[in-house]
Amino acid sequence: MHGHHHNHDGTRAFAAVTLINLAYTVLEAGYGFAINSLALLSDALHNLGDVLGLGLAWAAAVLARRQPTERHTYGWRRATLLSPLANALLLVAFSGALAWEAVRRFSQPPEIPAMTVIVVAAIGIAVNLGGAWLVRDGHDHDLNRRGAFLHLMADAAVSLAAVLAGLGMAWTGWAWLDPATALLIGGVVAYSAFGLLRLSFNAAMDAVPPSIDQNEVQRFIAQQPGVSAVHHLHIWSLGAGEIAMTAHLVRPPDDDHDGFIDRLNRELDRRFGINHPTLQVEHGLACEHDRHVRAPHGQPVD
User: What domains lie within the chain, and their CATH numbers?
Assistant: First the structure.
């Protein structure tokens, strides 16, 4: 019951933070268009990227609770690996368009009401710090929450850059600070989007998660009592914090087979976060026999 309650609270926190940030993103983009400020529009784009990221975290919290079906035997977790691909491509396209417009404006930057930029961006700082406070519980050991927490703190810093640009325009009258800030924020968006694109593409292609060293996992399994070889080792992400692994182990038969598997499964989860391991134990004698099986025409099978 306690675990379900924790999930429910986590889902509600993600829902609240996502909806509040979405409302602020619409507000900021509206003001950006109204006063023709690229700094606000680029900050709104950065917030949109994190709204999409928060939405994924929210979806992950929901999907992780859905039971597998006969058709979807792993559930719907992988949806959280596929949608970041589309999100990253969208952010790269938007940031490129904003950067183009910012460069074009440097020659004749329009006059921007600096106080509006300052007030709207300051609201963004408050919204993002408030959202980070909502998801702070457990962010040190929950990767889903940690990702959301770090995104919100980064958003607060980007909004601070927009506030500083507004203050600079108010004090100096330098209208070029608006497109300059847009270029800076656009660079941050593009950099994070390319990182997201690389990670999500690798995850969709069943790559080993970046947090896991496959060689270290193989060495650990090979060091277990009685294990003489490890092969056909595959590690991949199922999404929503679930990591799967399959491996074949060569080990002599004994009376503690089930206990050995249970202990190894627990250690794989504790040490590496691999919580869906599938282990096939091949006994040494059986393997030797398999290597000497002959084909129908009498030729040894490799």
Answer: 2-204 (1.20.1510.10), 214-291 (3.30.70.1350)
